[in-house]
Structure formats: structure tokens, C-alpha cells
Design brief:
The chain contains three helices and eight strands, in the order E-H-E-E-E-H-E-H-E-E-E. The protein is α+β, with helices and mostly antiparallel strands and 136 residues long. It has an eight-stranded mixed β-sheet with strand order 2-3-4-1-5-8-7-6. It starts with a strand and ends in a 5-residue tail after the last strand.
């Protein structure tokens, strides 16, 4: 793992939350994107060298909607940048981690993503991210 790629925060109202975080960070979002396959709309902020992703559910059965129903708004996941997501998935499986999606899928911000089950990482939902080369 190279670095923390971003921190994901689950929110009920993306527009309202965007205003709160713009005030908090002193900067505007740089990107809004919907990932229909996951039932989520995202808003990204850069804070120094770091990125924060706000996540709003677009349908009631999405993972974000279920998360907010169980735990409320707040930090949802920590994402780590990797060079080779397939190799990293295999390495982590070999170390005993439970991978939620063994085949990487397209996520927001031009990334291939995969998640580790929080039960295998001390309650933290971990996202692996690899830049999709040749696309922006």
C-alpha cells in the first residue's frame, strides 16, 4: 500500500454536507460523480495532499443507505492507493483478510476498487484503489 488515497464519509444530504465541508476545509469540492452500480453520489475535496469523499445514497438498498441506517452519518471507510490491486487482493487474502469483492470493480474518481470486510480489519472498512491507466 502506497498511501491513504482518501477517507470516505457517509452523509444523508450531499448538498447540505458539501456546504458544511466547504466551510470546514476553506475550499470547494473539485468533483461530483455518481456511481450508479453502487447507488451512491460522491463529492470530492482536496485538503492539502489529502482527499475526502462525501457519499450519499441514491437508493434505499445501497451500501451507504444501509450504513447510515445502522450507524448514522460519519466516517465510512479509509481507502489506500495500491499499484496492483489484483496482487494486493491475493496478498491480503493470504494474510487472512476477508475480501468483499475479489474482482476489482470501477469506482469513483477513475479508480478500480475492492473492499476488505471490517470484521477482518478491526472494524474498519478498507478500500483498495488503483488508478485506471489511460483514462481521466
Amino acid at each position: 500500500m502506497n498511501k491513504i488515497e482518501h477517507i470516505g464519509i457517509a452523509v444523508k444530504d450531499l448538498e447540505g454536507s458539501k456546504l458544511v465541508f466547504e466551510k470546514l476545509f476553506g475550499t470547494e469540492q473539485y468533483k461530483v460523480e455518481e456511481v450508479a452500480s453502487e447507488g451512491v453520489k460522491t463529492s470530492f475535496f482536496k485538503v492539502g495532499p489529502n482527499k475526502i469523499e462525501l457519499l450519499e445514497a441514491t437508493r434505499e438498498d445501497s451500501p451507504i443507505a444501509k450504513y447510515i441506517e445502522r450507524k448514522g452519518e460519519g466516517i465510512h471507510h479509509i481507502a489506500f492507493e495500491v499499484d496492483d490491486i489484483v496482487k494486493e487482493i491475493e496478498r491480503l487474502k493470504g494474510e487472512g483478510f476477508v475480501v468483499l469483492n475479489e474482482t476489482p470493480k470501477k469506482g469513483a474518481d477513475n479508480k478500480l476498487v475492492a473492499f476488505l470486510h471490517p470484521k477482518s480489519s478491526n472494524g474498519v472498512l478498507v478500500e483498495l484503489c488503483q488508478e485506471i491507466k489511460g483514462q481521466k
